[in-house]
Amino acid sequence: xxxxxxxxxxxxxxxxxxxxxxxxxxxxxxxxxxxxxxxxxxxxxxxxxxxxxxxxxxxxxxxxxxxxxxxxxxxxxxxxxxxxxxxxxxxxxxxxxxxxxxxxxxxxxxxxxxxxxxxxxxxxxxxxxxxxxxxxxxxxxxxxxxxxxxxxxxxxxxxxxxxxxxxxxxxxxxxxxxxxxxxxxxxxxxxxxxxxxxxxxxxxxxxxxxxxxxxxxxxxxxxxxxxxxxxxxxxxxxxxxxxxxxxxxxxxxxxxxxxxxxxxx
Length: 265
Description:
Blueprint: E1 7-11, H1 23-33, E2 37-42, H2 45-57, E3 61-66, H3 72-86, E4 91-94, H4 110-138, E5 141-146, H5 159-179, E6 184-191, H6 197-207, H7 211-220, H8 231-242, E7 253-256, H9 260-264
Parallel strand pairs: 1-2, 1-4, 2-3, 4-5, 5-6, 6-7
């Protein structure tokens, strides 16, 4: 019960349909297993409701709220919903990201660049801004933002995605420093190559290759056991950072990547 009596928000608690579990869904399930009440946010409410059903089946507590975090008013609305339902916001878990239509610096279009920055970086900022007033009033709170090891490692032809994730790393450190005196901790996780539906389903479709071949290719790039991570790996790292065990940790950018960042140096 590492999150016993805590209340939190998971943004991006649904997932792309697929064979495996996504980072946001895995995190939400783990938080509830560890005693937290969780408000599940997703643009596709039906996907958040699937996550809620899994949580409730295990005896946990979850509610759902449809919102698009690129709209600051909708971010404020889900922060208010959490307060109205449970009276506190102990943690915020931000797990939203896109990379569609990205390209090399020479080829990326303005439209694709602006959309990826808007969703990945501006949305994260708006979500954090929505909960910080309450956390400051409480004199406590934990925020974890899900970035990507692409911020520091090779990202192929992913110009806007890489820039947005570097921006998330910087945003987390800035928020950590500006809110430390209020007892608010802000940390960032950089997932490496993960076997999640968003990655496998999306990339295999985009590149026109089988999921089996894609998995084999991605596995070969991971130093640790030659195997990608899963949504559970990200969820457990986030669970630690949100828990009181990480009470003296803030401003950290943590790779959860099987050694990919270490290989880069």
